[in-house]
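User: I'm putting together a teaching handout on how sequence relates to shape, and I'd like one worked example. Could you take tryptophan synthase from Acetobacter cerevisiae, show the sequence you're using, and then write out its predicted structure as tokens right after it?

Assistant: Happy to. First the sequence, then the structure tokens directly below it.
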Amino acid sequence: AMPAAGADLIEVGMPFSDPSADGPVIQLAARRGLKAGASLPGVLKMIAAFREQDQETPIILMGYLNPVEAYGHARFCADAAKAGVDGLILVDLPPEEADILEQPAQDAGLDIIRLVAPTTSDERLRYVLSHASGFVYYVSITGITGTRTASAEALQEALPRLRAATDLPVAIGFGIRTPEQAATAAGIADGAVVASALLSTLADTLDADGKATDQTLPRVLNQIKDLAAAVRAGEKKAG
């Protein structure tokens, strides 16, 4: 349903009890998931079921290292690839310690997507991106997810520095909430990542027990359609 609504790539969160880089919306979503019994094996099973219908849309697992450590690095990478995962974003895995996962990920054919921020120095940027694959995730603000938004001017200033350091596509996230912001990000970079805004809409449609209602899927998909249309317009405007 999400690809049909216009999503080019799907980012799936791995359930974790302490998502320290995330704002309140994603923290609450993680809490709801864990309360409902979500687990890393369960997430992989869900992705495998999705792959029975869709073999094309890229899927990225995003989360924290602790569940991967508990699962086992090599086993996790092998099982993730078998389920149909294309890449990993582990927000608390610095490149200095990434050797524990780089070889298992490479053996399984998984990209490791790196995050860089406005505060990343030029020297640090070169080092981080020398270990990157897939695409670069530009954290457009200093802070947690879904709380603030970077200005178009700040994004325009940041992108040339990133382009000079890598040939990989750049997606902008952390703070993209509206179609207008998504259009701006897509016009400047190669993509826009939206999570908190979609989860806010989802949360608004749940019943008192935290379960989906007949409004949940239509409202989220309509929001994706609006975001996707804005991204296409932003890309077209940028030429």
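A couple of points you could highlight for students: The longest helix spans residues 216-238. Confidence is low (pLDDT under 50) at residues 143-148.
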